[in-house]
Amino acid sequence: MAKKPIDQNDNLLEIRDLKKYFQIGENTLKAVDGVSFTIKRGETLGIVGESGCGKSTAGRTILKLYDPTEGQIIFEGKDLSKLSNSEMKPLRREMQMIFQDPYASLNPRMTVGDIIGEALDIHGLASGAKRKERIQELLSLVSLNPEHMNRFPHEFSGGQRQRIGIARALAVEPKFIVCDEPISALDVSVQAQVVNLLEQLQEKMGLTYMFIAHDLSMVKYISDRVGVMYLGKMVELAESDKLYSKPLHPYTQALLSAIPIPDPEIERNRERIVLEGDVPSPMNPPSGCNFRTRCPKAMPECAAAAPQWKEVEPNHFVACHLYN
Amino acid sequence: MQQLTKEHFQPISVDLRQAEQISRPSLSFWADAWRRLKQNKVAMVSMIFLIALIVCAIFVPMMSSNDYFTTDLAGKNKKPSAEHWFGTDDLGRDVFVRIWYGARISLEVGFAAAAIDLVVGVIYGGIAGFYGGKIDEAMMRFADILFAIPYLLVVILLLVVFEPGVGTIILALTLTGWIGMARIVRGQMLQLKQQEYVLAARSLGADDMRVLFKHLVPNSLGPIIVTLSLTVPSAIFAESFLSFIGLGVSAPVASWGTMANEGLPAMKYYPWRLMFPAVFISVTMLAFNLFGDGIRDAVDPRLRK
Known about the structure:
heterodimer; A: 324 residues; Rossmann fold; 2 domains; eight-stranded mixed beta sheet; globular; B: 305 residues; mainly alpha; flat
């Protein structure tokens, strides 16, 4: 990858103690419960975790698709968390999203041209012949045939639809894109196509990605740094090579031990850390460290207090009592 | 069997642009629905019948030499003949013209009731489903209460208060008729607003109006049209029924229901006076329902082959 070096001090986005709670009847679902991290300009931050751990909610809250319960979202020095919808509108051009399900994320009643053109219409970026030209340019950018602008989404395959979704996100020329599991609904061969397209676009347009996924090997491939989430909290965050070679948090260790190795000899003798039980309900998380109920290394103090989010090594953050 | 050797195989050139080619002609949702509707013979026959019915209802009373109110006591209760195709009634009025005049009233009531249901139901259900939460709760409970009032009671009450006539019947039918439409639209909204394409529009900065009218309403049109196509016959039937029990339009205006009512005592001796309106009510109802079923099958993507 011929990528520009990332300036470690140039934070495009800074998340401080972000919380998103949902009220479900009398209960409070703590989908995201105090997450802090930064995203540097031009980097790809991978976010991994089991289903229901709050990765997607975190991504959507950062884009203000949900109003955060607490915390700050600082994008290029501006706090978004308190902005109203109309104040957010110009900022919507700066940050975009690519969705998980290529079948649900395109309106079946609109043509591909109108789907991509919607962004241009909302922000008044182009109209008439210029609009058409721009749509065709965006279609070529994601290597789709520009003549397809009058077709409907159901005529395309999953991978093609995902590329339409990418073209829609690119229409406003954003700086930052949240990729919410953009490849998990695709065939493996098509996954590679889409990931490579995302990388090319990053290089060409200097994009910054937050890449949410549960496929650990794919995240390692695309990300500069990787954060691991469990039950609404970030448990570990480090450069991807470091995280994969030397995971500190017991949960990260368990996750990484689950990656299959494409060599039957090694695979057979590989030692797996199997976690006991299921993820506790986010409506009623355990006291103290919320991983302690399944942690093989749980200690008495884990129940007493939640662990601090600490930088134990340069650029390697972890929240665990083992390292406090 | 022929032996295949290496020479039989030739590499084909791989052209990426070729792989992107889509050979099927582009079809919009409605073009596709129309294609499927055309394949449904029963629905097409019903549709042709209904078009003929509408055309006749408009033109027959205009072109016929007879009218619906002129009485001819010398020629009463006549059998169907060349002069009076469907015979005459007990006041010597031409049944054929009265049938088409009645068709006008029936269709008027049916379409007016459906149009009002459409407007009120879509707006009411749309607001309830789109905003959700407490607004939805309050609006739907109000609808439930309205729905719980016995329908005949409302109609009788209204007809006591207002002049009996087409307007009152339409009012009576639509007072509670929109609730079915509102429920359908609300259900659609609740389901559709969770879709990722709505979220995508939001992340592009779309406002409520755009989300509602560009994304939610166009995607609910299928179920709305299906509900509409079944509202028309039920309104027509309700009008006939109310007229039949004497709560409908008053003389000399003809409606299928009043004609059937007047024909009932004479059923034994002059059967055509009951038979013609009864047959028209039944066949029209059947055609509307079969056509509605056809539309439902055509717009429901789950039945797509």
